[in-house]
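Task: sequence design from structure.
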């Protein structure tokens, strides 16, 4: 009787950079396709084959090792990141199950990764204490920022509901202190990636923090004439709207939790709000130009031969160009994060 091709039992586990597959076949002989093997499985000596569509791209090199009891396959991810599941399809194949001998959740895998780079023994007291402190610090930072921006958002929304357009003209006086605090705290978002506390890029964080602080401290903070303009309301409202969803998303991620609605808002709300925020910031800069010319604030004195001084407004005009360049860079960065999560690429193992 001619043998038929069967599907073996496959067990999987992952790390940030690798996928581990354990195929339940004894005395397996691997064919050219890696997933086609001849061995002794649940239905005796036969030819077994399986196919998987991974959640995200993997590298073409596949390492496998056959023993008397099983076939071990190791596959490297194209990018080091944690996958929510193994396969592109949400419903896992019937032949696939977790490999509990190798299984780690994301927090344990991150601890293993940290131990690898720091030279500490996995789950040692020092490593566990460090990771605990890091998670606690990041959780508290995001919680404080969430509470701060939530307070600003609620105050502005209530005042808009009660006072209408009149609330536009004293936004700075009612919310500036908390906004100063939150934006000074945001400098930590530039420091954290440099210290290896988070995996986000340093450059996108620096662009956002530096841009906001320029608007807050230089444009609004140093010019009283700007503080009563309606543009302050729109800048603060757009900033706080984005951040009341951004910070709780990161806060829950610190403890390995996810709320699907919050995740959707985190990866989609910025698409209209982030460009609108940059446009509002640009309007604030443009409105401040004649004020800097008139007051000569922050002007750069020139040598006597040249006479006069160089107005700070010229610096701000250059900053306007850089602002929209930063918008392009950060938009690409955020879109890449969103695409990675929602527009997943197919990759078959054959």
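Answer:
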């Amino acid at each position: 009787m001619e043998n038929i091709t069967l599907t073996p039992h496959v067990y999987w586990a992952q790390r940030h950079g690798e996928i581990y597959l354990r195929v339940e076949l004894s005395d397996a002989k691997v064919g050219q396709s890696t997933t086609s093997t001849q061995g002794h499985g649940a239905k005796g000596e036969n030819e077994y084959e399986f196919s998987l569509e991974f959640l995200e791209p993997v590298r073409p090199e596949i390492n496998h090792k056959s023993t008397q009891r099983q076939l071990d396959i190791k596959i490297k991810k194209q990018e080091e990141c944690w996958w929510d599941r193994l396969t592109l399809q949400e419903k896992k194949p019937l032949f696939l199950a977790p490999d509990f001998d190798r299984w780690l959740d994301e927090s344990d895998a991150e601890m293993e990764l940290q131990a690898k780079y720091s030279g500490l023994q996995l789950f040692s007291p020092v490593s566990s204490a460090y990771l605990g402190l890091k998670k606690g610090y990041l959780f508290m930072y995001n919680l404080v920022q969430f509470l701060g921006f939530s307070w600003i958002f609620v105050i502005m929304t209530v005042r808009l509901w009660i006072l209408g357009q009149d609330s536009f003209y004293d936004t700075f006086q009612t919310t500036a202190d908390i906004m100063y605090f939150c934006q000074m705290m945001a400098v930590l978002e530039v420091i954290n990636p440099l210290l290896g506390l988070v995996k986000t890029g340093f450059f996108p964080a620096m662009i956002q923090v530096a841009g906001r602080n320029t608007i807050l401290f230089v444009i609004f903070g140093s010019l009283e004439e700007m503080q009563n303009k309606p543009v302050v309301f729109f800048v603060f409202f757009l900033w706080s709207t984005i951040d009341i969803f951004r910070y709780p998303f990161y806060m829950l991620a610190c403890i390995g939790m996810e709320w699907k609605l919050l995740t959707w808002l985190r990866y989609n709300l910025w698409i209209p709000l982030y460009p609108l925020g940059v446009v509002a910031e640009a309007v604030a800069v443009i409105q401040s130009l004649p004020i800097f010319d008139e007051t000569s604030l922050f002007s750069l004195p020139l040598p006597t031969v040249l006479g006069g001084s160089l107005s700070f407004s010229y610096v701000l005009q250059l900053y306007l160009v850089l602002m929209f360049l930063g918008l392009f860079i950060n938009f690409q960065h955020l879109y890449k994060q969103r695409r990675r999560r929602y527009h997943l690429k197919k990759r078959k193992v054959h």
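Confidence is low (pLDDT under 50) at residues 343-350.
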